[in-house]
Amino acid sequence: MKTLQFKTLIFIALIATAFSSCTKSSDIDYPTLKQVYFAENFDNTGGTALPAGWNSYAEMGTRLWSGGVYAGDGYATVTAYGSGDAANISWLISPAIDMDQHEGESLSFQTCHDKYVTSTSNSLEVYVSKDYNGNFGASHWTKISYNSTLPYPFTSSYAYVNSGEIDLSYYTGTLHFAFKYTGINPSTGAYQVDNVKIVY
Known about the structure:
The protein is built from one helix and 13 strands, in the order αβββββββββββββ. By secondary structure, the chain is mostly beta strands. The strands form two sheets. Strands 1, 3, 4, 7, 10, 11 and 13 form a seven-stranded antiparallel beta sheet that branches. Strands 2, 5, 6, 8, 9 and 12 form a six-stranded antiparallel beta sheet that branches. Strand 3 and strand 4 form a beta hairpin. The N and C termini lie far apart (64 Å).
C-alpha cells in the first residue's frame, strides 16, 4: 500500500511540474506573415497595354514590352522575333516605389521563355534605380541577382520559374526596378514576367 501511495504522489508531482513549465502563448515567437506592399499580376492590362505606371524603353532596336493574356492569365512579354533588328534591348520599368514606408522589403516575381530562346546570348536581367524620373538616358541602374535558371533549349510549353526573394531592405527613398530583355538573332524567342510582388 505504501509503495502504491508513493508512486501515486510521484505521478501527481510529475504532472504538476509539466503543467507549471508550459510556455505561455505570449512567450512563443510565432512566425509573422509578410504583408504585401506592391503587387502586379498584369491581369487587368486590357490586352496588350501595360498597367498604369509601368513603362517600356527600347535601348536598342524597336521592340517594347507589352501585356499579354493566355487562358485568362495576364503577363508582361517581349520578343525580338520578326523585328528585323540585329539586336533588341528592351526595358520594362516599374512604377515608383517609396522605400521609406516599411522595413525588410523583398522583391519576387516569376519568369519564363518559349522554345525559341535557344542561346544564353538572349537574356532577362533585373536592375534597380534610385534616380530614374522618366528620362532613361539620365538615370543610373544597378544589376541585382535572382534565380534566373531557365532551360536551354526549351522544347515544351512555357514553364514559370520563381525568382526567390530579393532583398531590397537597404534601399531608401524612391526606387524603380526594371526587367532588361536582350534578344539577339537568330535566337529571338519571347520572355514573360508575371506575379511581381514586394512584401515586408
